[in-house]
């Protein structure tokens, strides 16, 4: 099986309805490219490959669209005292 056949197999896999209905165009592109890259580089049964590819693609979306939670900055109240001349 050559690379071109692998690429055809990947293109034949439709994105899940939840992906196509609830993601922006940019998110669909990220998901799709991640999914297809994993699909090409994994072996095994179709169902297992889909599960792995979906998980990796979804994790990639989470990385792209979630920001780390920042903790509030702790300020020393003494740093704002006026100094006497």
UniProtKB/TrEMBL annotation:
| Entry-linked Gene3D superfamilies | ChaB
Please name the InterPro entries in this protein's record.
Answer: ChaB (IPR009317), ChaB_sf (IPR037205)
A Pfam family (short name) is ChaB
Instruction: Quote the protein name from its UniProt record.
Output: Cation transport regulator ChaB
Q: Which organism is it from?
A: Desmospora profundinema
């Amino acid at each position: 099986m050559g690379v071109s056949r692998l690429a055809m197999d990947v293109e034949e896999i439709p994105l899940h309805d939840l992906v196509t209905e609830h993601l922006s165009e940019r998110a669909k592109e990220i998901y799709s490219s991640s999914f297809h890259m994993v699909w090409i580089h994994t072996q095994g049964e179709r169902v297992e490959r889909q599960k792995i590819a979906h998980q990796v693609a979804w994790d990639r979306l989470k990385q792209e669209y979630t920001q780390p939670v920042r903790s509030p900055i702790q300020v020393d109240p003494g740093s704002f005292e006026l100094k006497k001349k």
